[in-house]
What does this fold into?
Amino acid sequence: MAATTESVKADAAEAPLLNQRNLYAGLLLYLVFYSFIRWYEGVYGWSAGLDSFAPEFETYWMNMLYIELVLEVVIASALWGWLWKTRDRKVMSITPREELRRHFTHWTWLVMYGWAIYWGASYFTEQDGTWHQTIVRDTDFTPSHIIEFYLSYPIYIITGVSSFLYAKTRLPTYSEGLHLMYLVSVIGPFMILPNVGLNEWGHTFWFMEELFVAPLHYGFVFFGWAALAVMGVVNTEVMAISKLLKKDLA
Amino acid sequence: MSASQSAVRSRAEAVAVSRTFDWMILFTLFFVVLGGYHIHYMLTGGDWDFWADWKDRRLWVTVAPIVSITFPAAVQACLWWRYRLPVGATLCVLGLLLGEWINRYLNFWGWTYFPVNFCFPSNLMPGAILLDTILLLGGSMTLTAVVGGLAWGLVFYPGNWPIIAPLHVPVEYNGMMFTLADLQGYHYVRTGTPEYIRMVEKGTLRTFGKDVAPVSAFFSGFVSIIIYFLWHFFGKWFAKTDFISDDEL
Amino acid sequence: MKLIKDKVAKLSFVALLVTMTAAIFYTPTASAHGEKSQAAFMRMRTIHWFDLNWSKEEVAVNDTMTISGKFHVFAGWPETVDKPEVSFLNIGIPGPVFIRAGSWIGGQLVPRSVSLELGQTYDFKVLLKARRPGEWHVHTMMNVQGGGPVIGPGKWVTITGSMGQFTNPLVTLTGQTIDLETYALDNIYFWHAIWYAIGVAWLLFWAKRPMFIPRHIAVSSGKASSLISAGDKKVGTAFALGTVLILGVTMGTTNEKYPVTTPLQAGLMRGIKWIEMPAPTVDVKVEDATYRVPGRAMQMTLTITNNGDSAVRLGEFNTAAVRFLDPDVLEDESGYPDDLLAEEGLTVSDNSPLAPGETRTVNVTASDAAWEVYRLADLIYDPDSRFAGLLFFFDEDGNRQMVMVDAPLIPSFI
It folds into this structure.
């Protein structure tokens, strides 16, 4: 009897399989942050973002660009560095329950990746379309670009790579070799950022009208397809988790 | 650690764990697909989708289904063959429409003040339901491509007509005839979109009678069949679970 | 403790909503427009706007104002910009802060694109109806296919009132009175909501049962067929047939409700009338032209011949919407934007009346901070270092003649 009591106690003290607080806090963090960003652009887009040669544009927009770029490099280095430095060197010897717990943590990362992709690829990208109807494009760094290309894209890149690194360093499933579709689903959307180079080159060379379906934009489309590779990640995960649960689900 | 050691303590816990993963997977799949599909659709058919005065009988009807059948075909390929879930197309379209509606409301209207009756998205839902149900009933990629792909193109216009018809009522304005949609485009100034950019009603307009939408829809359905096949295979490729060795990177 | 936590969570959510709402209903106070980015040669050698008039500087929501004037399509159109064979008379405002209630070139309504002729001068008018309060820079603007937006001068206009009061009433050809601002909105929401709900119902029908892991186990152990029941197929059939049925019925009811509809109207408008300008009797030859970077001044040596029958004086040099005037000859009374007007910016070495038949070589200097402010000085960095503009000569009776100049420009850095 004593042993049972001990085991119940151990269970109670043990970390939960899914840390729900982290999950909801993460989702809320992105939501609150992006709501603030939306408020900022709602106000300063109109009052300081219409003329890139005005001094207030430098104050409210270019400074924001410089600050965000620095922060992104710092956060990416710190987060990725930490994930790598604290990697589990004995990943093959963890218990099945610990493995399951890590799959949950991994899925918390993946949920954040989905959430970050939504804000970057959907919300702020289409939003850029409507801002181009409102201003005459007079700089590569329009307020909507400063947020879309240089804030929301780096954020999903940081989240996606972190997710990948978590899987690679803590889950037995990914410890040997590199999961091809995981690479595609992280590197493909990442490539949208360098593709901005093509976009700006085209818009600078030919003062084009704001046609969203212009072939110049197809680079974004091509790399957007890579999002589908998340299906490969889902499949691998389902296979791995099925292995852990199969006999209990039967 | 023993190989037979269990990850869960009971069958009930196993079921709960599996169910929690269901929701986390569904959430991630929904939003990642939403992001990819939205960026693809807005940059291949977006201008037709943004504005009421681009939603014509010819090019919108032709282009929108062709470029939008892509992701549904790919996601079906994964969800059906691996899980027998006939929801791939619906999942994609629900995602896309959610992303579009949030944007049109909060940004096109809420940030730059274009009225929503001018910048609402196209309705792709009827085609998605048909694509998924045909896959469920036939269980065949070929059948879904041919019948579903054709249906995807054919039902696009009827699925949107009840929404856009009021905007195609004619009006006389300063001595010229417009549809109300044309007038929206003229009234609500798009600084970056001059009228000549609009790709509508192009061609010599020599048709058999005035109804060109069915011909456009039929052609669109035909191309959608081909695109479906292609993207179904893309979907299978993207669903792969292969690993490459570290030094291949 | 939990109670406090809940309260904090609730309050944060309310704060979030308030901020989002505040952002949406924010009324701006100041903003300019990005015209200065355009290469100087684009502004100097494409469309020259003149005789402009903004009918009001302050206008209430629902009231109208006009911008009218003339534009000259420069004959020495630059090679890097496509010719204005397909052009659209636009208006440079930050989105629909006004609605464009009408626009005319040569008296013809131009809701669509038009074909313009090089070397011709056109009159135009744009009628605007105020929609969104704020202080806005309102520009003339011509979009040229293959060239992009060619922005003309802008003037600040204040809109007062509230956007909630804005209406856009129209009577359709079927006799219905509507407000285009909100017309058919409920119908759009309704159909999208119905179809979205059908999609959600389909997804939930499958999501209400275990989805990924058990189904994967079944498929991989060869029991895929057990995953789809006869009931599922029945529901699937109902969704498919229901979809087709709804489509058929709503097509029918829509056609009944809107028996008269027309296709979108499109197509290029040709044959736009230009102003028949009399041939100028003043002949101008540019001997040389330099731009002095430190002095923010352009100097031209001009040989002017008067072939007319009355004496003339040079009153204005107009380039890229900046007007340099000789105050002895011309004063602006049109309320032209201050930042684009150099009231004493034109100096002529000898601007005494040039008698009929006389030829004179003069030095003309156009100087003003506008060269820098409007980034026209960047002309010296353009890949095709030429300048162009309009010279206006006046006789004693105030009759005006317009002469184009177009010549190479040499920068002077010291």
Notes: Strands of chain A lie at 178-179. Residues 19-249 of chain A form a domain with the Glutathione S-transferase Yfyf (Class Pi); Chain A, domain 2 fold (CATH 1.20.1050.50).
